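A common beginner's mistake is to predict each chain separately and then try to dock the pieces by hand. The better habit, illustrated here, is to supply every component at once so that their relative placement is modeled jointly.
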Amino acid sequence: MKPAGMFQRSAGFRIFFWCFAILIGAFVFLPLLWMVNTAVKPMDKTFTLSFFTGPLTLDNLIGILKNQTIMRYLRNSLLVSFASSFAATVVSAISAYSFSKFRYTGRKFIMGMFMMSQAFPQAILLLAIYLMMQRLGLLGSYWSLLFSYVVFTLPVGTWTLKGYFDALPDSLIESAKLDGAGNLTIMTRIIFPLAITGMTSIAIYGFVWSWNDLLFSMTLVTDTAKRTLAPGLVMTFLGEASTNWNAMMSASIIATLPVMIVFIFLQRFFIAGLTNGAVKG
Amino acid sequence: MARNHGRLSDGQVGFLLVIPGLAVFCAIILYPFISAVLLSFTDRSLLFPGSNWVGLENYRKLFLNVYFFKTMLTTLWFVAGATLLPFVLGFIWAIVLHEQFFASQALRGITLVDWIIPGTAIGFLWSWIFNGEYGILNGLLLKTGLIQKGVPWLGQTTTALLCVIISRAWQMLPWYMAFLLGGLQGVSHEQVEAARIDGANNIQVFRHVVLPGMRQIVNIVLVLGAIGNLQHFDIPWTMTQGGPARATMTFSLEVYTTAFKNWKIGTAATIGTIWAILLLVFNIVYLKQVEESK
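With all components supplied together, the output reads:
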């Protein structure tokens, strides 16, 4: 305990602390453990209340990994998420660079519009995007998802990265210009590498956004071969007459793994990416 | 800045750079939004080509429809519950983890796992917990003798919305915790000390020093959380698809169902437009907060 704590460790505080530590701790962690517990139970023990006490098996998880359909959904999701995360980061970065280091008529207005993006409910945009993609013949193609995901990362991405670029001194650009560097070189060789922290957080934000999306992917891509993971799992498990809970929990764990891996290795960027955009505004 | 002949000026370069972003923004947000509002004045269906301009007919029908007000009420309950519950729990959890104890750092990290899990998977998990026949909740309640036979938590109108709110709260608790922990760390030590010297107890310190010091962050998470919940789709869709008997039908589910299950895209656009106006109010409040915090 550091010398100047916020609260005195009175009896009342101790009671408050321990009660809530246990209650909220249980609420936060027990469902998670229950998911893992169900995934590693043998099929005939699904409905017992045993909590990691009975026989354990990896068969359910292996079953999902061997399931060709679900693995295809997973590959599709990886493809779409990587592509849209990359595209969103690039588009956000060049927009943010423009807002940060250039002055032109309409700049403030465009910035304001980008920021208002979240004011538009996604479900209503989806109606018109659906009709538009239908007209363009892009319904069922990943392009429809790619464009949509880029836009939903754009406001957060632009505002976060603008903050990073604002912190870079203008003299950096000036001296590069004197050395004869063009605008493109300055942007890609000097500015972007210096804001790599921000770029990484935005890439992660974009990845998680598209990985988790259900609404758009479910509506815009309905071809089974092209389906991504979230709608794929809904279609696989919710349509069934009797639910296979072991498989469902195993599939849920596998659907979480890619994001979890990113989280473990890039925790610092991850949290920055998901909380920054909102506050920096 | 040096003048360069035959080359673009700085302002022109700046504008060129913003074009890709602006183009996708117009294609995916601006144009669809305007066309969706226009759609709300038509009888467009996904089953037939073409449509007729019907003026305010869709709006008139909606306002005469009792279900519409039920949806609005359900949405408000959902937004209120799914914002306040994880806010309060997340705040207390942040206070607990703000105390330095042996596992506090590790627990902060692990708490975030709940929030990383895709909404679809969270929907699966809580459908399983609340399952009416074999769910763990019923299992435990039966075992302790609190209930005599299984309760169909998600299958009855009285409890379904509450279950969906609890699931959403579980997902979002870490998010509120992360923000509020940051806020707690920013509270001035000097002010806490000063209040202590004046003889303030823990509750007084919290009310008169900590809470005022966190006012901005509290307002921002509440408004952002509410905006997120007004938009939320995944968890209720995975758990109940709006049922039973429309007990969990919020705006986003209603728009989706009307357009892509009942094929009435014009009516869906009408619901969506009304909803957008509601969301706009929250957004203006949010922008005000951000403006103030600068």
